[in-house]
Amino acid sequence: MNAVLIFSGGMDSTTLLYDLIHEGYEVSAITFDYRQKHNKEIRCAENICKKLRILHKIVDVSVLNDLAPSSLTREEWDVPEGNYAEESMKQTVVPNRNMVFLSLAASYAIGIGAQDLFYAAHAGDHAIYPDCRPAFVSAMTTALHLCDWNDVTLHAPYLMISKGDIVKKGLALNVNYAETWSCYKGEDRPCGKCGACTERREAFGLAGVADPLEYRA
């Protein structure tokens, strides 16, 4: 079974990578460089794939940085701090990012003959990210069935589970979360205050284990 995984180097997509390997898939990972502030995640993705001997493609989509205004793509915008439920977190939305990623990843899947495409959207994303919601996944699933003579099936297996449950699953799969990156600020250590850090810390708390990363605050 061949599959393409959109792989950021974060804890969710890393867990899904281990999950797919466990399920017997031959995985080709694709990572997108859109000049995001937290581009440290790209190096994490690269290192994890090297360790696991996974075919890994890094794709330059820097045009997205120019076209899609967000606190993740604009140096003059501060990354907001707090929980994803807060209105300020909408600043972290990169407009239409996942449709762009999924479209390019589908082209890659078709090109290498993979019939399955995975991404790690989860229930915690629903409140703030429109392109991680069930309606979006359903629409993209239909679009990918229609976009080419070669059928591609979209999978978002974590769509209805929490990030805490993802951590529990990853621990059972022996995921080394010290190798992953979540912080939106992309400094030498995670800030501990941005939405990604806040959600990550809550997830490890719900899983009843300590996060191996050392936070600034």
Quick one: biggest sheet? 5 strands, parallel
- The CATH class designation is Alpha Beta
Strand count: 5
CATH third-tier fold name: Rossmann fold
Describe this structure in words.
- With 217 residues, this protein is α/β, with parallel strands linked by helices.
- It has one domain: Rossmann fold, CATH 3.40.50.
- Helix content is 38%, strand content 12%.
- The chain is built from seven helices and five strands; from the N terminus they run βαβαβααβαβαα.
- It has helices spanning 11-22, 40-52, 63-67, 97-112, 134-146, 163-172, 195-207; strands spanning 2-6, 26-33, 55-60, 116-118, 153-155.
- Strands 3-2-1-4-5 form a five-stranded parallel sheet, sandwiched between helices.
- Helix 1 (11-22) crosses helix 6 (163-172) and helix 6 (163-172) packs across helix 7 (195-207).
